[in-house]
Amino acid sequence: MKLHRQLLTAAVAAALFVPAAHAEVAIDVIGGSEITFEGLVQADGNWFDNDVADLNGGDAANGKDSEFELRRAELVLKGKGPGNVEWVVGYDAKADKFLDTNIKYKLGGNSSHFIQLGQYKQPNSLEELSSTKNNDFISKAAVTNTYAVARRLGGAWGYGQDNWSVTASAFGRELTRNLAHGSGYGARGTFAPINEKGQVLHFGLSYVAYDTDADTLRVRARPNADLATVRLIDSGNMVDTDNVTTLGVEAMYIGGPFKAQGEYYSSKAKRMANDNYTSDGFYVSGLWNITGETWGYKGGVPGTGLPDNPASGMWQLGARYDHMDLNDGNLSANPVAGRPPIVDGVLGGKMDIWTVGVNYYWRSNTKFALNYVMVDSQKYSSSVRGFVNDDPNILEARLQFFW
Predict the structure, then answer these.
(1) Domain that holds residue 154
(2) Which pLDDT score, from 0 to 100, does residue 173 have?
């Protein structure tokens, strides 16, 4: 913990010397490599209006209905050169884990044609691949957090032009010990039939397959609150799972200051002693830049620009609807009187979530975000021998500093 505080203090001190118009610190040119330093610090607060479950843990009568936490403290070194080589080493001092840590070689000097080795985000989610500091909402969609394979060690090849891209990857475990395991592969293709400044129409398709760690899989989701310790929907441990395959479909439209996007995931777990388990979910969202700014687009992902007027900043309003279904089974009456119903398959529950939010970007380094989350969930409970509805509401706030 002491090392984490020292790293974070040094990072913030360095960032204070960054000119307001820049988002990175130039270090030096060493061995033909232009080295820069970037960082991201996020502090979150969640206030829970609990319904049935105590979302922040412990006794439901403990009187504690809020959580405050340093969410991220990301420190990143990047290098360009020598030649067509680019590299990055990232570390999150809060989570004590490595971030993107890889080397990329641009074939023919083309940034859209590359090979990549190391740890990087796998090519299977529009929201996951977008920059964390510019997420539309404080928490990523429940389906993204559940189904998207994030950073893993591996090798990737990518190629594309301004309006299309193809990326293929083979991967193994996460770089940091005792985190995600399971070797696999994935691919993502994107196509933008409209790609002009301030107007983009994007479509994407992805597929990922990987082995489960120790033949065990558990699919569950928080109610779009990163500080919640309880998952309202949960498949439970499936200890006979061999592998998982996930198909993702994505679409996005940018029209001036408006952006709409959505993703659908269908995931299938191959089980050895039971029927295969299938779950799915989707989200759709809309964002409006009140101050008139638009988004960029490169490599199949959107990019949020800086405020047109740094002194007054950039305001955004957004809304999102999430749906997840972790049920893949049936419930039938027990022929023996007085005994609980018979569950055939997995009844992990269903969850629908509305999120409304406002973001404020000030100058080039600061962001404030406020979200209100409304949850409608239902899950089978063996203790009550029936389905239980749990419909909490959550207020979320974030202060973010980046460079």
Answers:
(1) 2-402
(2) 96
